């Protein structure tokens, strides 16, 4: 199992998560998010941490912009949490984590059909609860039985409503 802590906005929190053993640290690059981290801040934080993979989280951003930022900031992974296509994922010059929003009506079979076309382009899939108008970070739980069924065939991250 791998642990990804997302929405980090400052160095003390990032260092704490790295020291606690997080495998991945996520930094939101979607300007509409309340946890958006400016480019210079993300770079400064990443320059001061070691150990975890660093993830730039984007929503419907042009691949050219992502690739330019990833190179400048130093992200080792890119998470795409919008409506990106498999072709969009293939344009990214880092391993991709593709986010899928899971609605109440979703089944493992319907989600598998949506995920399958991305298999060759992504390293991991991230499943998060669907809320209208939001692209992730809802903090809400979806039917995790769906994730259990998919885990045999897909590398997954779960998001939403996780507590310690």
For the biggest β-sheet, the strand order reads 1-2-3-4-5-6-7
SSE string: EHEHEHEHEHEHE
Mean pLDDT, nearest integer?
A: 87
Shape: globular
Task: Please give a quick description of this structure.
With 164 residues, this protein is α/β, with parallel strands linked by helices.
Keyword list:
TIM Barrel, 164 residues, 20% strand, 7 strands, alpha/beta
Structural summary, described in words:
The chain is of the alpha/beta class. It has a single domain (4-158), classed as Aldolase class I (TIM Barrel, Alpha-Beta Barrel), CATH 3.20.20. It is built from 6 helices and 7 strands. It has a 7-stranded parallel beta sheet, with helices on one face. It is globular. The model has no long low-confidence stretch (mean pLDDT 87).
């Amino acid at each position: 199992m791998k642990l990804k802590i997302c929405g980090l906005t400052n160095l003390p929190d990032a260092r704490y998560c790295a020291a606690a053993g997080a495998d991945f640290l996520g930094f939101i690059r979607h300007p509409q998010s309340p946890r958006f981290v400016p480019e210079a801040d993300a770079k400064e934080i990443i320059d001061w941490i070691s150990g975890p993979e660093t993830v730039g989280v984007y929503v419907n951003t042009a691949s050219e912009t992502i690739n330019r930022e990833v190179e400048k900031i130093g992200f080792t992974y890119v998470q795409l949490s919008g409506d990106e296509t498999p072709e969009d994922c293939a344009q990214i010059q880092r391993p991709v984590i593709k986010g899928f929003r899971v609605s109440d009506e979703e089944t493992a079979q319907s989600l598998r059909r949506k995920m399958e076309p991305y298999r060759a382009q992504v390293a991991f899939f991230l499943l998060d609860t669907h809320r209208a108008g939001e692209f992730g970070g809802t903090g809400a739980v979806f039917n995790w039985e769906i994730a259990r069924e998919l885990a045999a065939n897909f590398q997954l991250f779960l998001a939403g409503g996780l507590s310690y």
